[in-house]
Amino acid sequence: MTTPSATAPAPAAPKLKILLLEGVSQTGVEILRDAGYEIEYQLKALPEDQLKLKIRDVHAVGLRSKTMLTAEVLKEAKNLVAIGCFCIGTNQVNLEYAATHGMTVFNSPFSNSRSVAELVIAEIIALARQVTDRNTEMHNGVWNRVVGSATHEIKGKQLGIIGYGHIGSQLSVLAESMGMVVKFFDVNQRFPLGTAIPAKSLEDLLKTSDFVSLHVPETPETKNMINAKEIGLMKKGAYLINASRGTVVDIPALSQGLKSGHLAGAAVDVFPVEPFANGKNFDSPLKGSPNTILSPHIGGSTEEAQSAIGVEVATALVKFLSTGMTLGSVNYPEIDLRPVQSKKTVRIINVHHNVPGVLKQVNKLLSDCNIEKQICDSKGSIAYLAADLEINPDTNIQSIVNGIRAMPENIMTRIIV
Fold first, then answer.
1. How many separate domains does the chain show?
2. Is the pTM of the predicted complex or chain greater than 0.90?
3. What are the residues facing 240 on neighbouring strands?
4. 362 plus 213 within the same structural domain
5. Diameter of the chain by CA atoms?
6. Of the listed 274, 304, 334, 338, which one is catalytic?
7. Annotated catalytic residue within 64, 245, 347, 414
8. Are 101 and 127 in a shared domain?
9. Are strands 17-20 and 238-242 parallel, antiparallel or unpaired?
10. Whether the Cβ atoms of residue 50 and residue 30 lie closer than 8 Å to each other
11. Whole-angstrom Cα distance, residue 337 to residue 273?
């Protein structure tokens, strides 16, 4: 990325600076380093004051789930044009602020689906056999060989899946292959895999399932969607598993359901508030609950999943920075662009407010150039424009860029050569 000061051909682009936090996978680091970027790599999330300092002059930042890019943090960034979330969610980023300040956001929504699904299968079996309670007793020197009705096989049991997207559907296939009967509920129309059965309603699923597993996003509609009422609808002796988002389950209500004996067990991998760093800093009403598996948000934290996420997000960042391509962006229109094909071509990337008349103003500024290609698309209030210009020694690219930047509707303009 560079801004030529006068005439064509444009000078070589300066090395872009990338800040990578929270020990993102080395597969991603290698892709970004091979692209020629200057990399700063941090194993952990940074406190807000340090983050504000580090983010000021970088062109892209990569993070996982603990780094919070609030509006207050992002306003410190002077050169930032890309944010890579090396994880499924983007709740840690203020997407609206990023979009309206020329920062596109990428994530990897599907790369860890298999890892999460496998963890849930492991938890279903462990809960059915009370493995974690027996393990704790053994480590405390207690031999408690439970025999009979307290433990079960999972074959023939009904698994109710709430949210039948990539993770839910993969879980469906794995569970069915182990002999479980699968019923699912989703607010969107979903095609069932195998012999999975769509539930008539959430209430129908809760009342009939032996195991209930949650795989929904964090939205206002899903906040505390499983509370005391829903837990009361579940079969006595059923099990609840949450590997989606911490706000989806009312934790005190779940704790009460376990301690009263209405639920036979639970597995929780995500929590409404999670510690910023590792150590003795976790507390929850679920601690000490019978037959309850608590894990520190590790559903997608396998080596395989993190490697795949590293490849997907780093590749998206490289393509965006080098070509302007926005496929996979969560807050910008998705536009597929190839690299600039000629040394006589300059690509102008422009983000502007999606209001009438902007293209007319831009094209007036480009009127003296041969426009080889021009693409414009919008998403909500944001419009994204890419224009390939054939330049000659008389072309004053800097004057064109300055003219676009001076438009009141302009958000961000950069040049790719």
1. 2
2. no
3. 212, 266
4. no
5. 87
6. 274
7. 245
8. no
9. unpaired
10. no
11. 40
Q: Amino acid identity, residue 86?
A: F
125/79 same-domain check: no
Range of the domain at 314: 17-110+304-416
406: left (phi over 0), alpha (psi -120 to 50) or beta: alpha
pLDDT lower than 70: segments of the chain = 1-14
Active site residue 297: yes
pLDDT tens digits for range 236-270: 999 999 999 999 999 999 999 999 999 999 999 99
Residue 398 near residue 337, CB atoms below 8 Å: no
Tokens 């300092």 locate to 53
Same domain, 123 and 259: yes
What would the pLDDT profile of 169-224 be if each residue is shown by its tens digit? 999 999 999 999 999 999 999 999 999 999 999 999 999 999 999 999 999 999 99
Residue 6 lies in a domain: no
Is 221 among the catalytic positions? no
The sign of the CA dihedral 113, 116, 121, 122 is positive
Of 25, 8, 20, nearest to 311 by C-alpha is 25
Pairing of strands 263-268, 370-379: unpaired
Which residue is catalytic, options 297, 347, 352, 414?
297
Q: Which two tokens stand for residue 7?
A: 């005439």
Domain boundary among 275, 294, 313: 294
Same-domain status, 261 and 235:
yes
For residue 167, what is the domain's CATH number?
Answer: 3.40.50.720
Would you tell me the crossing angle of helices 358-365 and 397-405 to the nearest 10 degrees? Answer: 160
Asked if residue 9 belongs to a domain, the reply is: no
